[in-house]
Amino acid sequence: MSLRERIEALAAEVKTEFSGEDFHLFDEFKRALNHGEVRAAERQSNGSWQTNRWVKQGILLGFRMGQLADMSPGDRRLVFVDKHTFPVHEFSESDRVRIVPGGSSIRDGAYLAPGVVCMPPMYVNAGAYVDEGTMIDSHALVGSCAQVGKRVHISAAAQIGGVLEPIGAMPVIIEDDVLVGGNCGVYEGAIVRERAVLAPGTILTGATPVYDLVHGEIYRKTSDAQLEIPAGAVVVPGSRAVQTEKGREWN
Length: 251
Fold this sequence. Notes:
With 251 residues, the chain is an alpha/beta fold. The chain has a domain at 3-68: Tetrahydrodipicolinate-N-succinyltransferase, Chain A, domain 1 (Orthogonal Bundle). It contains 4 helices and 25 strands. The strands form 6 sheets. Strands 5-8-11-14-17-20-25 form a 7-stranded parallel sheet, with no helix packed on it. The chain has a 6-stranded parallel sheet with strand order 6-9-12-15-18-21, with no helix packed on it. β1 (41-43) and β2 (49-51) form a beta hairpin. α1 (3-12) packs across α2, α1 packs across α3 and α2 (20-34) packs across α3. The longest helix is centred in the first third of the chain and has 15 residues, at 20-34. The termini are far apart. The relative contact order is 0.09.
């Protein structure tokens, strides 16, 4: 059986106690995540993105299997308690990932490609995929299963939202060469296409309408499509006048 088939079979079982063989399978799955061999969503040949439900099932399975354990460093000046199945991701020089000292954390089950730079403090959650040459600046978050492309700049205090449930929900997608400005927030499965620029303070959610003043279009999330920012777009925060009776009075 393939890794996918074995993970799906174990996830379908209703049990609270797991065997050594089960944990061995989960470790195999997590190694594949850590090396970028499996990922929560993948770009298709036509440019669309598809969620890999079984990968998200595997991550959720890890939380079911995990027991609370002391994750504190040896000197115990700081105390941490978490599921033992998701410790801190261990890196070596051969990974060629630069993690500047000072309070950053990458959870096991996340993939950071060679050339990624992490400025303190920042956090990357399980299931995230961060491709080559990307910079994650201070106080930034890359959430569970978020997919970040090559040469992306995630500026200080930017939040790339994560999603594990529902299983079929699309994670946030940030394609290659995108600039995410400081204090931006991208949530609820929004897709930011390559070379787009999000100005500082831009917030994108499933309820955000985006007005394209150049092409005269409005981009929204629909029942069958995510909010999608076109390639090369420059997005800035804005507001509209309130058109209700009180709004007209206040204006």
